[in-house]
Design a protein that fits this description.
The chain has helices spanning about 10-20, 25-35, 50-70, 75-90, 95-115, 125-140, 155-165, 175-180, 185-200, 200-215, and strands at about 40-50, 220-225, 230-235, 240-250, 255-260, 265-270, 275-280, 285-290. The protein is of the alpha+beta class and about 290 residues long. It has 2 domains: about 10-35 and about 50-215, YacF-like; about 220-290, YacF-like. A 4-stranded antiparallel sheet has the order 1-4-8-2. Strands 3, 5, 6 and 7 form a 4-stranded antiparallel sheet that branches.
Length: about 290
């Protein structure tokens, strides 16, 4: 990595100030979720470095898919939104989800608590973030709080969920009630999808909070994959959660990752007609590590 560990504190403070100015209202959090976007010139490939962050990225991906599809008028867009929404219900129904999110929030809170004695940091804004983290922790630890309870009460979604494990499970003879719903007007379908997805808004906000904090604390460097291969040591003291490889879109390659507790390696691959092959030439790319601590 080109960024020295000695520079870490200064980078953290700069990234924190950028983040905290943005994280001032729920509306801005919603806007951040609703606009995933694509880089015109580059492709970014993210790789989670542990199971907790992998789960967060999966949920984030599904929330983006629902938001993108639900605004469309066509039946196919409604189908896409429902498919992603049902997958969200499946993931959010995991018995270990709350504990994994609490672990992430506590790790982030501990890290940012160490900034309380930094004169460069706006203490009022820092307290706002710490209070928000504590709010989510209390919410998730509450015995009365159930992430997917409300949406699981929707019988139509439950029926779709049970049938999706079968090929063509959403066909008219398997789910006539779904077929009837799809024949409603686009405005009715969009309203239903919004109402149903809003039942997972608490989860959505927690995921956005975690990922936004992690993505604002990053270290980047320009690298070369010699002969298409790259490997690096991961410093465990940095608390790295996500690694991102950004490569020129015109190069037409993707990284095949292999990650361990303290190491990262990948080989660039490219699509060649009906085959996937290893790249054997040097590939320039940008490497970024996103950290919780």
């Amino acid at each position: 990595m080109s960024v020295e560990i000695s520079d870490k504190e200064n980078l953290e403070l700069k990234q924190f100030e950028l983040f905290i100015d943005e994280f001032s209202s729920e509306d801005k959090v919603d806007a951040a979720i609703d606009s995933p976007g694509f880089d015109v010139k580059c492709i970014k490939y993210e790789q989670p470095l542990n199971e907790q962050i992998r789960l967060c990225l999966r949920l984030d991906h599904l929330f983006h898919k629902v938001e993108h599809a639900r605004i469309g008028d066509s039946v196919s867009r409604s189908r896409d939104a429902i498919h992603s929404l049902v997958q969200l219900v499946q993931v959010s129904d995991r018995p270990d989800l709350k504990s994994k999110l609490i672990t992430m929030l506590k790790q982030i809170k501990d890290h940012y608590s160490k900034m309380m004695d930094k004169p460069q940091v706006d203490q009022n804004k820092l307290i706002l973030v710490l209070d928000q983290a504590e709010h989510y922790i209390r919410q998730l630890t509450s015995a009365d709080f159930r992430l997917a309870d409300q949406i699981k009460k929707i019988e139509l979604l439950n029926n779709i969920r049970m049938q999706q494990i079968n090929p063509a499970g959403d066909s008219v003879f398997s789910l006539p009630e779904y077929y009837l719903w799809l024949h409603r007007s686009s405005e009715e379908r969009k309203a239903d999808i919004k109402t149903w997805s809003d039942k997972l808004k608490d989860l959505r906000l927690v995921i956005c909070f975690i990922l936004k904090l992690i993505r604002q604390n990053s270290f980047s460097s320009q690298e070369i994959a010699a002969g298409g291969f790259y490997q690096s040591h991961i410093d465990s003291s940095l608390g790295c959660q996500i690694v991102e490889v950004k490569v020129g879109k015109n190069i037409g390659v993707y990284p095949k990752f292999s990650v361990g507790r303290n190491h990262l390696s990948f080989h660039f691959m490219h699509l060649n007609e009906d085959k996937i092959q290893k790249v054997v030439k040097d590939i320039p790319f940008e490497l970024s590590f996103f950290c919780a601590g």
